[in-house]
């Protein structure tokens, strides 16, 4: 919990201790262990993590270090931020977002912010997160690939939407 501690001696016979605590930022799950991490990705504790259920939840190797950047990008789109249940770091290079509707959004390794903006546009126009979709793949810069849920009939297992107008 201690980010920094300063001890100063004040004569005659006094000691001043200044403690700066780390602020809990996210819950990090890696190899089955849940830990509370700071904004910088430092592990604070693995005890009583259930008390921190209100924090963003990230999963996977490297997720603790990248959580702040990811959630800063997500929070720039408030309508989406409230709907993200957890984020999974894939191969310590990109993210999969799991939404409350069950939809998984695969973000690209580069230009995560641009992909999130495109997702927000498609959500406004097509309401993707409310549809019977299992996956929205934003990893390709020129298109968005959408996979329907397997429990719904469809003529094509995968279909593409035209790319949103954005710079790549």
3D structure, described in words:
With 168 residues, the chain is of the alpha+beta class. Helix content is 19%, strand content 40%. The strands form two sheets. Strands 5-4-3-6-7-8-9-10-11-12 form a ten-stranded mixed sheet, with helices on one face. It has a two-stranded antiparallel ribbon with strand order 1-2. β8 (94-99) and β9 form a beta hairpin. The longest helix has 15 residues, at 112-126. The chain is elongated. Mean pLDDT is 87; it is low at 155-161 and 164-168.
Instruction: State Rg.
Output: 20 Å
State the separation between the terminal residues, measured CA to CA.
Answer: 41 Å
- Topology, number of strands: 12
Oligomer: single chain
Structural class designation: alpha+beta
The succession of helices and strands, N to C, reads: EEEEEEHHEEEHEEE
Outline type: elongated
How many alpha or pi helices? 3
Tell me what portion of residues adopts beta-strand conformation.
Answer: 35-45%
Main β-sheet, spatial strand arrangement: 5-4-3-6-7-8-9-10-11-12
> Which residues sit in consecutive blocks of at least 5 with pLDDT less than 50?
155-161, 164-168
* Helix amount: 10-25%
Nearest-integer average pLDDT: 87
Major pleated sheet: 10 strands, mixed
């Amino acid at each position: 919990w201690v980010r920094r501690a300063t001890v100063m001696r004040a004569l005659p016979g006094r000691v001043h201790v200044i403690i700066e605590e780390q602020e809990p930022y996210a819950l990090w799950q890696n190899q089955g262990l849940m830990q509370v991490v700071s904004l910088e990705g430092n592990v604070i504790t693995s005890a009583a993590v259930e008390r921190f259920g209100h924090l963003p939840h990230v999963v996977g190797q490297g997720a603790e270090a990248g959580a702040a950047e990811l959630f800063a990008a997500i929070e720039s789109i408030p309508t989406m931020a409230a709907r993200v249940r957890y984020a999974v770091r894939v191969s310590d290079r990109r993210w999969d977002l799991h939404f409350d509707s069950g939809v998984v959004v695969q973000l690209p390794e580069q230009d995560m912010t641009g992909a999130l903006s495109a997702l927000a546009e498609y959500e406004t126009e097509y309401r993707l997160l409310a549809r019977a979709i299992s996956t929205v793949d934003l990893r390709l810069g020129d298109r968005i690939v959408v996979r329907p849920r397997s429990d719904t009939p469809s003529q094509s297992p995968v279909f593409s939407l035209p790319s949103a107008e954005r710079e790549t």
